[in-house]
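ok so i was messing around last nite and threw this chain in just to see what happens. nothing serious, just curious
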Amino acid sequence: MSEIKACLFDLDGVIVDTAVYHYRAWKRLANELGFDFTEEDNEKLKGISRVRSLELILEWGGVVKSEEERSELATRKNDWYVEMVSSMEPEDILPGAAEFLRKVKAAGLKTALGSASKNSGLILEKTGLLPLFDAVLDGNSVATSKPDPEIFLKGAEALGVRPENCVVFEDAVAGIDAAKAGGMKAVGIGSAQVLYKADLVIRGLFEMSLEQLDNL
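result:
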């Protein structure tokens, strides 16, 4: 049995599903630049920072922009995204997520969010989940993106817990790789074929129990 003392969670695809809002905002931007952006393209951006996502999208569209222009485009996309997520409510929380977070807190375990999204605080506030987290680490907190483990290592540090006593919940390969690189246990949410490096793969937090945590 492992000595799990803290749970670190990604946001998109784990706690809430904001992928559709990212998709709509990126698609609108791509269309304005004269090319299309598909749902398949959006899947490739899972767990990747906004700046890197924009770089990839511009590459796919064959569009070259200056650093200043890229900064303006990233800001424009984010403004559209924030406008959409500002209307989120507790009903937008994924099944079982709030319940599992409450169980984890009741068991005396620490919790942290480790998300590339720079709007994590806003989303947690709008969905009423903010009080369930002891620390919130987002894209504003780190210099490197997943699969670099920086965000999870900083999360563990903020909680005062050693990495080997942490378990990370992630839906992206880059996130699972980051957890493993940081010396943490990893629970994948999604396909076992895709997230095969995880210690356990589930369909959603509605399938997770405290007993499973003990057995990681």
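not much to say yet. The chain has a mean pLDDT of 93.
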